[in-house]
Queue: 3 jobs
Job 1
Amino acid sequence: MDAREASARYANSVSEGIEFVDCELTVPLMEGQPRRREVLRHGRHVKTIDVHAHCSIPEAVALLNRRVERPGLLLSGVQDRLNAMDEQGIDMEALSINPFWYGADRDVAAEVIRIQNEKLAEISASYPDRFVAFTTVALQHPDLAIEQLETGIKRYGLRGVSAGCIVGELELADPKFHPFWAKVEEMGALVFIHPQGTPALESRLKGSGVLENVIGNPLDTTIALSHLIFEGTLDRFPGLKICAAHGGGYLPSYAARSDAGIVTFPERFTVSLKKRPTEYLRQLYFDSLIFTPEMLRHLIAEAGASQIMLGTDYPFPWTQTSVDHILATPELTDDEREAILGGTAATLLGIEVGVLS
């Protein structure tokens, strides 16, 4: 039995009515084109929205003499991307670009962001039922980032903002970024933060196992979120809506140690928090890109099902069964599954939940 059959059998046997099915396209299938899969609940389509989908704009990359890391990142191959989405049962992607421009000077950074945001707006407008996008900003220049945030959302119709976990050597919790976070909170924009590895540990992560990614990326997210908590940023801006990639890294798995740390080393906690560190998990959002039902169950136990959204990390093939993963995680109600699959993302990103087109 393959993953598709297993998830369908699970859904049909224990859920209130959610199932994963293949459906006919409105146009004839071309040779090699996958059949579009969709999630149904009592015969009604459940829109699935992937909040963790990468892309790259070659014109912007070229400005900093970089290369596109992976062909699948290119939006010129949009049909291949749509085919992959159809095969996996993904109705919409929220496109984001990992920051490579945080070291650029102001003028170059401004041009990189302009090119990227215009292209993201163009692809979203060309396929409005399949793509929305997070605006990109040059966080190393916070005043410029504020302008880019407003332009991206108000002029281009982008739906939130993406950010790395660190800007140069500055944590996201650094006071330099307070004006930016104030504007994000004011606008009610969802922030998608993605790791960039941990260069400071480069010497220890060398060797077999691509440890700079497998360990380094979730560690980067863990550090960023911990600073946002312990430096009081989440208290200062309680309306911030932050979604952390890869299930929030290691933080949700070991967050209770943060609570215990306050008791064990009270003199080392120099910022007074309004609540226990673990309680901040319930005001953060996380994608579902963790690899077993037990890991997802635990994340939900720590943060709440309302804080989890579907994520695939496309085009990187960490998993191609993200929808099945959510359907097959036990102890979830169908209302919770529907929210994780797309309902929460639709609310946060302002996406209409209509019929499948």
Job 2
Amino acid sequence: MAQTVSILLNPTDRDRLGQIVGDRNRPLKHVLRAKIVLLSGERLPVLEVARRAGVSRPAVWRWQRRFAEEGVDGLLRDKTRKPGTALIAPAVVARIVALTCTDPPGAVTHWTG
């Protein structure tokens, strides 16, 4: 995957990203994303941006593209994902709980036996 996004920052975006980087109460992921875009705005090569930010090249490309598509607000939101499925069916869970509430089988005194 090659860099296909050229980051051009206007003064408003540059100020806002600078505030994010300088805010000690921001989540680290927001600071890192803003730092990537600021370094990209200095027209540095992707490899240099990745080195200075301490991330991979695909991470740099990801946040450059997100900034180009959604602006600064896009850096502050995580993409939504589909909810996961339950690993064990509720009926199976109920059966296991019911079994462990009874006496252990055979001559053992504990279920771990």
Job 3
Amino acid sequence: MKQTMMRELEALRKENALLQKEMNSLHNTNMAFEAIMGIIADGFLVVGRDENVIEINAAYCDYFGVRREDVIGRSVYKLIPNTKMIEIMDKDLTEIDAIHEFPKTLTASGEYKVAVTRLPVRNEAGEIFASVALIKFSRYTNKLVQSLQEMSSEIEYYRKELSRHSIAQYSFDALPTSSQVFREVKLLAERFARSDLPILLRGETGVGKEVFANAIHNASDRRNGPFICLNCTSIPADLLESELFGYEEGTFTGGRRGGKRGKFELANHGTLLLDEIGDMPVAMQVKLLRVLQDNVIEKIGGERLIQVDVRILTATNQNLEKKIEDRVFREDLYYRLNVLPVHIPALRDRKEDIPSLVYMFLDELNQKYGRILSIAPETLLYLQRYAWPGNIRELKNVIGHAFMTTDAGKIEPGNLPPYLILALDKGWGSEALTALMVQQERDIILAALRKHGCNCAKAAKALAIHRGTLYSKMEKYNISIAELRTGKGVAVADEAMPAD
């Protein structure tokens, strides 16, 4: 008898232990369930056969403006007069993303249309004992969609920035030349590329300063880092600081969510090219000098300094020394940037390179448009006789024009732009054509200045050019406002004209 009782007691102890284990597991599962129901943005509701609420989560309580403890165990009709939870059980229905419209005065948020998924719940015997509902609130969905759109916009912005700037496409080997002058410039730039010192690229518009900067980056130890370019004339002065240094969220009305990274941050561990550096406002020159000295930046609206490791390249077609005399360019910044100067020759000084450049541009167009176009030898002679005031950029555009205007398999002289044909067919030498263009441009600028009483701002606006560009052209053509006001300096001496 005693042994039997001991065995039964042992069996009962094991059964209790197993039951306790199951109860603990059930308790943990219930806690996890309550935690999930408490954080999900969707509403959740369970109603029993007796029409009373078995479970409701925080999101649904917030939606109605009620407390959970005031709802549990009460009739679902008191919470939702037009509920379908009982019908779901009575008719054994399942609804997926059905639209349910609450009375407009019922909800605390004012949102009265929701998407609801409802279904009955069965026990092991297959009997329906409850119904459950998952409610999707549009305000949460809209907020999520908005967040995703903002994130997508942000990602797309930086993807475009990096695709535009971070891949240096050119190398020195890809710059064809038969010119001894250009070859020496390339060798000098390659040597400079091996250091981290600033390089100042100088040369006329269109000579390929950005291409040279690409090649310098690719020849440097930073070739695996980003290559970022910013044209100082393409950004309004009041936005230039945010482009360079970025800004924190909330600094500007309509600013990007999360703020914005500036070009210095994007170029970290790589190379930053500041093109048209001569047009940078003096106030920004001071801030740029500070970055060059300390290697730190501070975002607009920020309170912390950010360390940056960036190699600086700058480019200009302007006379910086004259700008220093005119006090529109800081001398201390000039010496910081002009550590390793590289002067890129104009195309007219390396005309022996014209054929190889033409063939390179033609190959690019043939590959892009799936054609097999060649160029007639006499067309090359036309191109080599021209002065190319727009340098390589103009040559590339001329080849593009000729490529698109010929239906034959060869570019003939007649496919060249009319202005180029006119210049050569009238017997003007390339020097004469350039001089004519210079004289016409100078006359137009003088006329605009006289018309607007020597007001450079008004003259620049009338000419539809930036005031800095007007100043540059006035310097180029030796136009003095002081002399113009006194009636002097209106004639053009030969020595004042730019050399061809």
